[in-house]
Amino acid sequence: MDGDRALRYPAPTMAEEPVLQLERVGAIATLTLNRPRSLNALSRELRARLAEAFVELASDDATRVVILTGAGRAFTAGLDLKELGTGGATAEDAVETEDPVRALARLPQPVIGAINGFAITGGFELALACDILIASTEARFADTHARIGIMPGWGLSQRLSRAIGIYRAKELSLTGNYLDATRALEWGLVSRVVAPEQLLPEARAIAADMLSCDPVLLRNYKRIIDDGFALPLGEGQRLERRRSAEFARGVTAASIEARRSEVQARGRTQTND
User: Fold this and answer.
1) Which range marks the domain in which residue 240 is found?
2) What are the beta bridge partners of residue 7?
3) What is the pTM of this model?
4) What phi, psi does 221 have (nearest 5°)?
5) Secondary structure of residue 122 in the 3-state scheme
6) Within the chain, where are the H helices?
7) Residue 14 above 90 pLDDT?
8) How many distinct structural domains can be found in the chain?
């Protein structure tokens, strides 16, 4: 679809709001977790809808950047413990067959996590799977796996220590204490903190900056950062050299000159702001 387009995904019944909203505006897709009365808890239905939306977006060449956020007071409070407690779903299913984080990781587009409120346990894991995190001043992060009695299975035990350091990660995970937005910024978990009403405009501004980059390189650059981060430094550098050489075969003098002019023009604009 071309131009601005918006839809709710999936179509709601007459009396219900969809648990996930998908809005497309130009090349930016915004996914909003939409169970605000349950702090956007990840029910079986929401996990399924989220994974399906990620699969859909992954194959959509018109979508170049994805923003993920929540409705109401929470980004997401994690797995729906009420549903788990009544047997409506099992923790094993959530880890083995209903993992939205794995689906998110397959997205070739950059994903901006706009953390509007509570990001707790499974919600913290979902946030950590994003490529960039920006937070509202109302954002709160917590890992309560040890308090609930569920072992993390969506990557938190590995990603968090790599993001903020092993000692800080252990403090959060072994206490279950909350981390507010200011401290999250100090610790390098999020790249910026803004007022609640500025959160989505800020996310869209970052997305617009990404759209000014070469679209093919944008996806390839994301992939090489992720792939190299999982390797020792020496192997990561060899990976970079190999992929750089492969990509360079398709670069022409004309394409470099065209992009150089664009970069210079943008640099002059930013310098004069």
Assistant:
1) 215-272
2) 22
3) 0.85
4) -70, -45
5) helix
6) 44-58, 81-85, 91-96, 100-105, 122-128, 145-148, 156-164, 166-175, 181-186, 199-211, 215-229, 233-248, 253-272
7) no
8) 2
